[in-house]
Amino acid sequence: MSRLEGLRLPLARLMAFCLALLLCAAPLLAAAPQEAVLAGGCFWCLEHDLESLPGVLEVESGYSGGALPRPTYRQVSSGGTGHQEVVRVRFDPARLSYGTLLRAYFRNIDPLDGGGQFCDRGSSYRPVIFTAGPQQAAQAETSLSQAARELGFAPTALAVVLKPLQRFWPAEAYHQDYAKRNAVQYNYYRWACGRDRRLNQLWGGRARSDSPWLVKPDRSNLRKS
Known about the structure:
single chain, 41% helix, globular, alpha+beta, 8 helices
């Protein structure tokens, strides 16, 4: 064996060892899952609409926004707790950006209605984006402006509130995956509530989608209300 051939064998082993280290380290280098907490009316519907997005790992229904610890559905729906029905979305940022998630969120709600959503009325159903840190807050502001432009309104006309997240409280077990476990009741409720009719009226062909924002360059005719 020549000296050159003798060097090739250790070099090949070294390269294989380095490759194995890279493969083992890849999962550790992957971006950690992120979370978003969003209120948009009935959490059954928002959970159902967001959990199918590529990159979403889990969606859990719950409550946030108020000071009452461990709130129940009865307490929140009765009003006075300050909580909204929300969903907590765990997602892979390598597959789904926070901005894309917010596009899907906006196109699954009525951002002009601050008194509730669709047939569900009251503050516990109003639309809120609960932000975790300044980066989410800045992206939420940008998304709100883009949603307003797509709808032809000034940002001040939108009723979506941006609030710092304090704490998420999981809802009762019977609320989780409600659309999957109670398909007949859920589909009837959604139809009777007029959710999809209103979404189609507002967003047209982009309703319920995460497609890029529709850019309308002429801002001279934006409505204020």
